[in-house]
Design brief:
- The protein is built from 13 helices and 18 strands.
- The mean pLDDT is 95.
- It starts with a strand and ends with a strand.
- The chain has 379 residues and is an alpha/beta fold.
- The chain has a 7-stranded parallel β-sheet with strand order 3-2-1-4-5-6-17, sandwiched between helices.
- It has 2 domains: 170 residues, NAD(P)-binding Rossmann-like Domain (Rossmann fold), CATH 3.40.50; 185 residues, Dihydrodipicolinate Reductase, domain 2.
Length: 379
């Protein structure tokens, strides 16, 4: 039994703590004591601690008492928190999904002889694992990931519920989207290139450009065509575009009755109520990863992995927490079991290239009733 500290007790952080506590001693931390009290009352076997991740000295002192760190703080804190953890000489699994380039910390991790597996969620995360695995099996020319978390019940106008902060969701709608086409990096405005896509059990969804490729732009430069798009119910994009074009996402202050106010702050407050995912509210995660290229026999082949996961009534765990969090806990257990021991910062595609790691991750998720269904065909 190992000792693991989880930084951040949000929806995903708490789900990870509960999963890890089946086999390890877990300390779950957060800056908000009320959040910790609720989790502790439901899960008395989990130890909790109020901890401010921005207090570097205290953070480093606490993480050193454990065998592994899980970084699940909000994205805007993620990079500096991971940096502090690495400087403390601690191995880490990271799902903070911060906007900075995690590979900038690789030299620091090697210097301190630690392993940090980053972006360890569903997407980025498992799509990278799949890509890394098939990059070793095929000469890939194309990679596409379509992914989205959706409520089961559509509510007008947005037909959407956010499993995390609306500010982080809005970031998807405002940050320029990068993809690779014919070997060249292309930057487009988010919410562009909308297409309708059919999914079993769900029906028609709309996909749009979002900045989801992250590390694979740098680690897989030999693949000429790579794209990640976000999925929503039809109509969602149009309403968001109206808000965006009207200035509701602007961070430039405006004067309202003598007070300076950022439109984004007001919009976030309104959308937090509109998009809030209630406890035990049913939602689902859908993802389709498509890869194509030349297989070992010299034939053109397309490989597709489909994921359809729903809220778990038995454990009362949201699908987004399951698909994101259990990917990270799979990586944590895989690391503690000694299957991956390289030093440095590793996005998932550099882990998935190892067949034993790929099989471990898939098996771990299958045990938790999260199934990636594979199909393939010759082109």
């Amino acid at each position: 039994m190992k000792q693991i500290i989880v930084l951040g007790a949000g929806m995903v952080g708490s789900a990870m703590a509960i999963d890890l506590a089946k086999n390890h001693k877990v300390v779950l931390t957060d800056v908000n004591p009320l959040v910790l009290e609720k989790i502790k009352s439901d899960n008395p076997h989990i130890e909790t601690m109020v901890l401010d991740a921005t207090n570097t000295l205290v953070l480093q002192s606490e993480v050193k008492k454990h065998d592994l760190v899980i970084n699940a703080v909000p994205g805007f804190l993620g990079f500096e928190t991971l940096k502090s953890v690495i400087e403390a000489g601690m191995n880490a699994i990271d799902i903070a999904f911060f906007p900075e380039n995690s590979l900038e910390l690789d030299a620091l991790a090697k210097k301190h002889q630690v392993t940090a597996i980053v972006d360890c969620g569903v997407a980025p995360g498992m799509d990278n694992i799949i890509l890394g695995y098939y990059n070793e099996k095929m000469k890939l020319t194309d990679f596409e990931c379509l992914v989205g978390g959706l409520p089961k019940t559509k509510k007008w106008p947005f037909s959407y519920k956010a499993p995390f902060s609306p500010v982080d969701v809005i970031e998807e709608y405002t940050r320029p989207a990068r993809y690779v086409e014919h070997g060249e990096e292309v930057v487009r405005e988010a919410l562009t290139d909308c297409e309708y896509v059919e999914f079993d059990k769900v029906g028609t969804l709309e996909s749009f450009n979002s900045d989801g490729l992250r590390s694979i732009i740098y680690t897989m430069p030999h693949i000429p065509n790579m794209k990640e798009k976000t999925l929503r119910y039809p109509g969602h994009v149009e309403y968001v575009k109206v808000l965006k074009s009207s200035g509701f996402f602007s961070e430039d202050p405006i004067e309202v009755k003598g007070q300076q106010l950022k439109p984004l702050d007001m919009t976030s407050q309104i959308l937090f109520k509109e998009w809030k995912l209630e406890a035990e509210e049913e939602e689902l995660t859908v993802m389709r990863v498509t890869l194509s290229g030349e297989n070992k026999d010299g034939h053109r082949e397309e490989v597709v992995y489909n994921l359809h996961d729903e809220y778990c009534h038995e454990t009362k765990t949201s699908s987004m927490a399951r698909t994101t969090g259990y990917t990270a806990t799979a990586a944590a257990n895989m690391f503690l079991d000694g299957l991956f021991a390289e030093k440095g910062v590793f996005p998932p595609e550099l882990v998935g290239k190892h067949e034993a790691c790929f099989n471990y991750m898939m098996g771990y998720l299958k045990e938790r009733n999260i199934h990636y269904i594979k199909s393939s065909r010759l082109l």
